[in-house]
Amino acid sequence: MSGICVALVSGGIDSPVAVARMLVKGWKVYPLHASQEEITGSAAEQKTIALLRHLLESEGPVGDAARANMSRELVVVPVAEKLALFTKKWNHSEYFIHMKRLFNAIATLRGNEVDATHVLTGENLGQVSSQTLGNLGGVEIATPLLPLRPLLAFDKVTIMTMARRLGTLGISEGPEICDALGPSKPTTVANKEWLESSEDRVGGLQSIAEDCFSKLKIVQL
Prior knowledge:
The protein is an alpha/beta fold and 221 residues long. The protein has a single domain, classed as Rossmann fold (3-Layer(aba) Sandwich). It contains eleven helices and six strands. It has a six-stranded mixed sheet with strand order 5-4-1-2-3-6, sandwiched between helices.
């Protein structure tokens, strides 16, 4: 099976491994980075660029697939201002779920431009609070794009081994700062009605995603 997907690439260890796995299977990949630069600085964006360029410059099947199937345009969408909406007392424990739902809603907008059918992530079950079974379900319903999670059943050690073989581990390693606004005790079981009510209270998920997407920039890889 192959098709067209929007890939959410964070600059961490998991997402470039997921991208590489789908590239060699023949998927057309359009990378997208949700930038929190206003809060975390530019390191995550710079790592994302370096990781994707590494795949494009690699030798062997991965490099060949990247050059054939990956878009040379990285879409960078600023999200920090909108993520701050989910730090209120009444919605903060669901912060990470709202964050991933926003990323998926933004991926939908990009997907509409490139006729994508799927959204690709590096998620693997249970690694962090937003990746419990219940929360993954709460996230994926935020987009009509079908989920591609090629790392879902792998543990972190295995993924790090894959990244080392790809040559991406050294680029990705470093402190994870995407949780800068996150709660100390995040929700692990999503409630659809509560999530939607909370998002409507701050303007609606679709409206928030569209506002973020209107401020995108393109980085040429």
